[in-house]
């Protein structure tokens, strides 16, 4: 557990715990969003249930200013989120825009594309990332036609999804670790991201072995890709070892 009085940077175990908490919180938010986004006071309900007290208070104040007497005050958060920060009206608007945006948000996609372009050169200097990205592209080309077909077999659909998504996750998590940086205070978080990437590569190999065994993917297509997965796995392991060599605590 993280000790605020400990001057040492966070360990891998501490970062893992933080990531798990973040994943649980994201899952809760997605569930609430799916349930309440179309409700008249859905924004307020979500803010309360997530423990975002300042946002909830700001939304209530805005409703009062607009003369809205239909706001539901029945839902109360179990605890306040300590990361909850809202400073002004612009922040509220930005939060609401992000939280209730349409799925097809071209502006956000453009922003992400620009950020990606800026990082491309640095990322491509990382052998593990470069190899994982190349592999993900080839996996996508091999599986996408099968995934686009009508598939009545749910187990097969999940297997195809795992073989596809895990390959892309491997590259994404390496990029995520790189984005965190290499300073001591985030280095172990970077390492954990690469460990998640390595786990994704293991899962990718298992999925492809099953696809080949079930003769869903032809042998001449599967075998070269599985061999490439093993090479990517080795590069990720080497990257983790190199990052860990800088950890002194």
Descriptive key words:
9 helices, 249 residues, globular, mainly alpha
Largest sheet: none
Return Rg in Å. Answer: 22 Å
What's the order of the H and E elements? HHHHHHHHH
Calculate the terminal CA-CA distance, rounded to whole Å. Answer: 15 Å
User: Portion of residues in helices?
Assistant: over 70%
Write the layout of secondary structure elements.
Blueprint: H1 12-36, H2 42-50, H3 53-65, H4 89-99, H5 106-124, H6 127-148, H7 154-180, H8 184-213, H9 219-244
Helix pairs in contact: 1-2, 2-3, 6-7, 6-9, 7-8, 8-9
Describe this structure as you would to a colleague.
The chain is an all-alpha fold and 249 residues long. 73% of the residues lie in helices and 0% in strands. It is built from nine helices and no strands. Helix 8 packs antiparallel against helix 9. The longest helix has 30 residues, at 184-213. The model has no long low-confidence stretch (mean pLDDT 83).
Brief rundown of the structure:
It contains 9 helices and no strands.
């Amino acid at each position: 557990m993280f000790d605020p009085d400990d001057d040492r940077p966070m360990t891998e175990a501490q970062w893992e715990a933080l990531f798990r908490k973040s994943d649980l919180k994201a899952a809760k938010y997605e569930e609430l969003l799916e349930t309440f986004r179309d409700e008249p006071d859905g924004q307020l309900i979500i803010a309360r249930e997530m423990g975002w007290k300042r946002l909830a208070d700001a939304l209530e104040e805005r409703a009062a200013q607009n003369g809205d007497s239909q706001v539901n005050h029945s839902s109360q958060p179990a605890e306040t989120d300590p990361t909850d920060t809202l400073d002004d009206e612009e922040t509220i608007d930005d939060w609401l825009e992000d939280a209730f945006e349409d799925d097809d948000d071209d502006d956000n996609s453009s922003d992400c594309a620009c950020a990606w372009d800026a990082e491309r050169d640095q990322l491509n200097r990382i052998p593990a990332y470069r190899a994982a990205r190349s592999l993900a592209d080839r996996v996508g080309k091999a599986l996408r036609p099968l995934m686009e077909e009508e598939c009545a077999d749910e187990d097969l659909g999940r297997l195809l999804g795992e073989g596809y998504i895990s390959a892309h996750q491997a590259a994404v998590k390496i990029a995520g670790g790189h984005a965190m940086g290499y300073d001591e205070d985030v280095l172990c978080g970077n390492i954990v991201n690469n460990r998640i990437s390595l786990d994704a590569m293991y899962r990718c190999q298992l999925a492809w072995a099953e696809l080949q065994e079930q003769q869903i993917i032809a042998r001449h297509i599967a075998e070269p890709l599985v061999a490439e997965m093993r090479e990517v796995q080795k590069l990720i392991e080497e990257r983790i070892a190199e990052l860990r060599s800088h950890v002194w605590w």
